[in-house]
UniProtKB/TrEMBL annotation:
Boundaries of every AAA domain copy: 23-142
Residue stretches making up the DUF4143 domain: 181-337
PANTHER family in the cross-refs: CONSERVED PROTEIN, DUF4143 DOMAIN-CONTAINING PROTEIN
Organism per entry: Litoreibacter roseus
Name of the protein: ATPase
InterPro entries in the record: AAA_14 (IPR041682), DUF4143 (IPR025420), P-loop_NTPase (IPR027417)
Length: 390
């Protein structure tokens, strides 16, 4: 069934492979990277290797022997972060292939951790590869009618497409357990899984709140440094977003702490044990969950190279999401789970301070209306369409 949902990234990835020797596709486990890579491989002369399979790892024990034979083919290497020594060999392979006339579409590398992988590959493969990130399903991939299910279950394909809300929640609980007990230890990180689960759950309760490392450390009985390490890890695994505060000098005292969101709403709900839409709507996290869900979808829809942040001054002027587009224009976006298209005066003060070009309110109705002070109120799908059109 996942194959019936066309991923926005299919075209982007195909274009990147047609322009570059290699593409590194990053994204959390189970997000659909392998399915997408296999769709691309089927349309090309390609070979597929999975570094979780010992037989495939053995093939690449002496990478040049095997890869020389595959010259001219697309080589897909899945879970490439498990073979960190490979990147040096890939650099030589790309250079050899270029000399032989194969300049594009040579390697598609799939990885489940950003920084550990990026540090290794960035040094070896600088200028030779393009980086892409695959997110869970977004609203424009599954259709506006599926918004309630996408928000409740999140966008991981197996969770979103499950036969029932109960089956979806079970899948997400297993996913969280596997990450804590198997995947994170596989990176050589010695963090007690129970401590990390409690940390992740505390973030879920505080979805979209300002990071208060001291409070989290006190709650877990660990040091502030440990909290920073846990957060770095979940950000690297692309499971948590640390949304930075706007930092350009506007002559105001601004909040310095980032806001923290669990990136997939379905994981937020699983950590809190929320199985049904009714349970979600009755829970205090509902506002933060909706805000995080909309922000992830809006960032995914924004043009490549867009920078995301939020604005909050000590006087209380606030903007939920600022998008700095590649042409340096600023969009100010407020997210509200309300049917009334109104923003606060503080939003307008902040938007004036920043000289934004667009003021949007993403709200829970399905029609677009002009609001006060140049704000346009619209459903999430419309705001995403406007960003995709840029």
């Amino acid at each position: 069934m996942q194959g019936m949902i066309t991923r926005n990234h299919l075209e982007r990835l195909t274009q990147a492979l047609d322009a570059q020797a290699g593409v590194v596709l990053l994204g959390p486990r189970q997000v659909g990277k392998t399915t997408l890579a296999q769709d691309i491989a089927e349309a090309r002369d390609a070979v597929y290797l999975d570094m979780e399979r010992s037989a495939d790892r053995q093939i690449l024990e002496e990478p040049d022997l095997y890869l020389d034979e595959q010259m001219g083919k697309l080589v897909v290497i899945d879970e490439v972060q498990l073979m960190p020594g490979l990147f040096g060999a890939l650099r030589g392979q790309i250079d050899r292939r270029r000399r032989a006339g194969y300049r594009t579409g040579q390697f598609l590398l799939l990885g489940s951790a950003s920084n550990t992988l990026l540090q290794q590959s960035a040094e070896s493969l600088a200028g030779r590869v393009s980086y892409q990130e695959l997110t869970p399903f977004t609203l424009d991939e599954v259709g506006q009618g599926a918004l309630p299910a996408l928000w409740l279950r999140g966008g991981f394909p197996e969770s979103f497409l499950a036969a029932s809300d109960r089956a979806s929640l079970s899948w997400r609980e297993d996913f969280i357990r596997t990450y804590l007990e198997r995947d994170i230890p596989s990176f050589g990180l010695r963090i007690p899984s129970e401590t990390l689960r409690r940390f992740w759950t505390m973030l879920a309760h505080d979805q979209g709140g300002l990071l208060n490392a001291a409070r989290l450390a006190a709650g877990l009985g660990v040091s502030g440094q440990s909290v920073a390490r846990y957060l770095d890890l979940l950000v690297d695994l692309m499971l948590v977003r640390r949304l930075p505060p706007w930092h350009a000098n506007v002559g105001k005292r601004l909040v310095k702490s980032p806001k923290v969101y669990i990136r997939d709403a379905g994981l937020t709900h699983a950590l809190l044990g929320l199985e049904t839409r009714e349970a979600l709507l009755g829970h205090p996290v509902v506002g933060g969950s909706w805000e995080g869900f909309c922000i992830e979808n809006l960032i995914a829809a924004a043009p490549r190279g867009t920078e995301a942040s939020f604005y909050r001054s000590s006087a209380g002027a606030e903007i939920d999401l600022i998008l700095k587009l590649p042409d340096h224009q600023l969009w100010a976006i407020e997210v509200k789970r309300t049917t009334a298209p109104k923003v606060t005066r503080g939003f307008h003060i902040a938007a004036d301070d920043l000289a934004v070009v667009e003021r949007l309110l993403v709200y829970a109705e399905d029609r677009e209306v002009p609001g006060q002070g140049g704000v346009r109120a619209m459903p999430l799908a419309n705001a995403m369409d406007r960003l995709r059109a840029l």
